[in-house]
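Researcher: We're teaching a course module on how sequence relates to structure. For the next exercise, students receive a sequence and then see the predicted structure as tokens, so they can try to spot secondary structure elements on their own. Here is the exercise chain.
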Amino acid sequence: MEKQWATRWMEYGDIRLLPAGTVLLDDGSYIRSVPLVLSGVIKVLRQNEEGKEILLYYIQPGESCVMSFLGGLHDEKSKIKAVVEEDAEVLLIPMDEVRRLIREEYGFIEFMFKLYHRRFEEVLNVLEAVSFKRLDERLLNLLHKKVELSGSSQLQVTHQQLADELGTDRVVVSRLLKQLENDGVVQLGRNRIRLLQTPGQQVG
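Model: And here is the predicted structure for the students to work with:
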């Protein structure tokens, strides 16, 4: 997001400091505002009727949630769940202001369309991974992504959280993590995982 756009849009919303674990937007809720992440990370998940979830993408600083943007414009209920992954500072722009920005700020709609293209590619990657990649490979890719976002090889995450993001069961993730530990890829602790393998390496 270009700096001048950020400066201009700050006056149209309210800034909130949200701790990790905060549910910013729940599945089935009405969308009252569009979030613009200033710092921290938010994860976006899709939930099925049984309550099982799968990670779609992360929203990083300078980005927004196109799903809430599109849903809010059409007064639809949310089809996704947005949860704060790391303590975040978020600018919440009310939908009335979003509609005005669309009419008056070409930069805003250009920003959203560029972001939509990026998110579409990320969702296609998730579909491809679910369809064609082994679960252990998907798990390792997820760990690498979390390390990239946090900037640390030491992750504070539970097996259940990983299972939720992968759309599988905790016992399956625990078994795969144990195998990765035996292979020297990770080191396991209580609600902590240290990644020992570099992103360029592959699961055997």
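Model: If you want an answer key for the exercise: The helical segments are 3-9, 66-73, 95-104, 106-132, 135-150, 159-166, 170-182. The radius of gyration is 18 Å.
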